[in-house]
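Q: My labmate handed me this sequence with no annotations at all. I'd like to see what the chain might look like in three dimensions before we decide whether it's worth expressing. Could you predict it?
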Amino acid sequence: MWTIGFVITLSVGATSARVFDRDIACPAQRDTEFAFTYGEPLLSYARAYHNRPSGSPVNQLFTNTALATPEQTAVVSPNVDTLYMTQCYDISRKDLVITIPEVDSSRFYSVSLYTPEGDNYLNLGSTKQTKAGRYLITPTVTSETAGKLVAGSGSAYQGTIYSPRTMGYLLIRIVLRNQDGDVGVVNEIQRGFSTRTTCRSGKPIGPELKDGLFAGNSSLKAEYLINLTARFMGTVPPTNDQPLLSAETTSKLSQAGIGNNGACHKPDPVKFEEAYTTANASVNAFMYSPQFLQDLGNGWVMPRPNLIGRYGDNYIARAAVARFGYLGLTADQAIYPIYNQAFSLGTNESYILHFAGKPPVTDIGFWSVTMYDSQGTLVPNSISRYSLGDRSNLTYPDGTSVYGTDIDAPFDILVQASQPPAKWTSNWLPSPETPGPFKIILRFYVPNEALSNGSYAYPQVSKGSAVL
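A: Here is what I predict for the chain of 468 residues:
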């Protein structure tokens, strides 16, 4: 999930170091660098597999029935906008059936499907006006249908989802309209979702999703990653038309010693550690470059919308996102702006986030600004408030509610550790009591285009004395 945890500087423009563009005398060395970049997101999938909630089995849907709290540290930078349901799925031997219940059309929910590499290949839910019923998830047999939902025609299913890999990740999000009474309502909706496997004719496809798939000494990062990448080649289903991986990609992986049989054979002239170091540096440079980041104004930036969620053959963008936002949604579903300077407060200091008006999300969309400590954990405070947004009781300076009226005017959010005067209480986002750095994350779900095309003025951030 989205775990932003870095500060951006737009002055770095080092995409000339991209692994795909370097002119190296040894082609196998260059292609091994490519292989490391191609396979890097699999390290995030390995973590997701090993950190399954409560050790939930593969192909079993886990339901998170309560919001995150400061005491929970397993998930970095959890949101307090939605309740989650998650599942590592494996359709190498059997297909998967997911049942989607009827959900109020005014409530945001999404059923998001990902490849192990983090491609958000399909989203169902309220923005797609998904029909309630059962859906079959099966490995694709053609490149044309890969990653798509094909509507059912007289079958037992509303439609068939053709997965571009034989395993992946299922993530269901359901918005909370408030953090009190609505939890029970969302829990009832959650009970309507279910998954089960169903038999499929034909031979197994590739490896099973088991511990052995991730075996190896992960402390030897280069060797572990190249072998992991080789094993996951078998998760790409064979197709009866064009292969899912391009000839260029397959050729580069082959030159790096990676075939389709799950094994890796190191080419004689290749230096693994050197290739790994170079690939790592190239991804780092790309992450902080204008080619990856879009300047939103007032110090806010975000990954370019076309570089989030669906990557095609842009493997360096896929690797960059996996480092801080694995399982991020496509930009039509959500965007996550980042402030390009570190947040840090001393004793008796504060920040004010000055919003020029209500952030423009669509009718079913919502937004929030959430506080975390430097480790990405929610911050304990006297009023148990971890975020503010469109479902909060924000007020204008004259005390009028920001939401629940047609008024669209400037308003402020106050960030400080100490309790402010009463007139600020509704707009106060408590920061850590201990002076020092912390994180603030903006989230916009189902955003209006104004939030990414430059026409919306992002909040101005100013630092000053605490409001007492």
